C-alpha cells in the first residue's frame, strides 16, 4: 500500500525529470493520503488536470493556463456548434472544483450570465427553465426532467452514471424533444474530455520546452 511520503517522493522525481511533460494523479486517492497536499505537490506547469491551486487561481482571474479537461471540452463543443454565449443566460448544476466551478468561470469569460446551482439550491426548475445554455454535472441520474428544460435551449449533460440500465446522464433523455441541442450519454462530453486532456498534455510539453511561457 503506497504511503503519502512515497507518493510525494515520486512526484518530486517526476517534477524534476526532463523526460516528463505532464503529470496526472488519478483521483480519488486512498484514505491514508491527503488529496489536497498531493495536488499542491504537482508542478503547476505539469499539472495536466489543471487542479493545482495556482492553475485554479489563474482561471479565476480570467487568464487560464491549464484548465480541467472536461470544462474545456464543454466549451469546445459549444464553440464547434456556434452556440452564442455572449449575453446568453447559462445555468450550471454542480459546484465541483473539477467541472462545475471551472465551467462557470469559462462561461463567464465568454460573457454569459451564469447561475451556479447545487444541492442546496431551492426550486432548481425555476433556474433551469431560464437557461439558454444548461450544463448538468452532478452525478444524479435524470435529475433534470424534460419539463425543467427551456424550449430551444442547449443542454450539455456531463453526468456519467452507472445504472442497471447502463450508462445514463444527469438529464432525462426525453429533454431532447424540448432542447435545440443536447449532448448524448455516453458519447458526448466524454470523448471531448479525452481529446482536451491530450491537448493539455501538449501544452505542458510546450511549457517544459520553453515554447510557451507559463504564468509567473
How many separate helices?
A: 7
Rounded to the nearest angstrom, the radius of gyration is 18 Å
What CATH architecture of the largest domain do you see?
A: 3-Layer(aba) Sandwich
Q: What is the number of independent domains? A: 2
Largest sheet: 5 strands, parallel
The CATH superfamily title of the largest domain: NAD(P)-binding Rossmann-like Domain
Series of secondary-structure elements, N-terminal to C-terminal: HHHHEHEHEEEEEH
- CATH topology descriptor of the largest domain: Rossmann fold
What's the rounded overall pLDDT mean?
97
Shape: globular
Strand content: 5-15%
Overview of this structure, please?
By secondary structure, this protein is an alpha/beta fold. It folds into 2 domains: 4-67 and 192-209, Leucine Dehydrogenase, chain A, domain 1 (Rossmann fold), CATH 3.40.50.10860; 69-189, NAD(P)-binding Rossmann-like Domain (Rossmann fold). It has 7 helices and 7 strands. The longest helix is centred in the last third of the chain and has 21 residues, at 189-209. The protein is globular and about 50 Å long. The relative contact order is 0.14.
